Amino acid sequence: MLLLLLLLGGRIADLFGRKPAFLVGIVGFAAASALGGGATGFEMLVVARALQGVFGALLAPAALPLLNTTFTDARERARAFSVYGAVAGAGGAVGLLLGGILTDALDWRWTLYVNVVIAVVAFAGGSLLLHHHRDARGAKLDVPGTLLAATGLFSVVNAMQQVGGSVGTALLNTLAASAATDYLTGRDPGSGAVRAQATIESYTTAFWWSAVFFAAGALIALVLYRRGVPRQDAGAAPVVHL
Q: pLDDT tens-digit profile of 202-230?
């Protein structure tokens, strides 16, 4: 849902202003989180999660442009984008840990209720510190075109994820099955201890190969990532290098 509506959310932010879109997205996301936390059935929880995606699609496209317009100095803007990237990157890992702690200490519903607390702080800060800005005054919202583009983007990305996930799953399953077969060779497969150890061997092999793939991806990103400050013509428009 989030990916499908990102383009539409970005266009709405351009038309009506990034600050209103950001604040409405925060309020809607918090309300959807509260609805999910208080869900009385599976259907209600699914609806709440879908609404989170809708308001998240309004919130996300407004965040980066707001950083761009709030921090006008190039050095401060680069620092703001760096902080944003670090927080966004660490959010997934911290969210998993925090979700586990909340579920274990309180209840799974607090993994949704906690968004309300964060939203209150974000809304207060956004209301006080952000400035209203619009880039598309007088323009019209092309809903059919936006929905067609969003649907096409969603189809392409979803297809890539499905193909990549299928290939990765098949590869890891093959490696795990090969490891288990190698361990069982010459041993008694009827023994429960032998079968348990074979399972451990298969899991260990899959985890190690996953680590290798991630390390290879990190190495490729490190090699291809442009370091340093690029040269810029004196008369060219200012850019921010991250």
A: 888 888 888 888 888 888 877 777 665 55
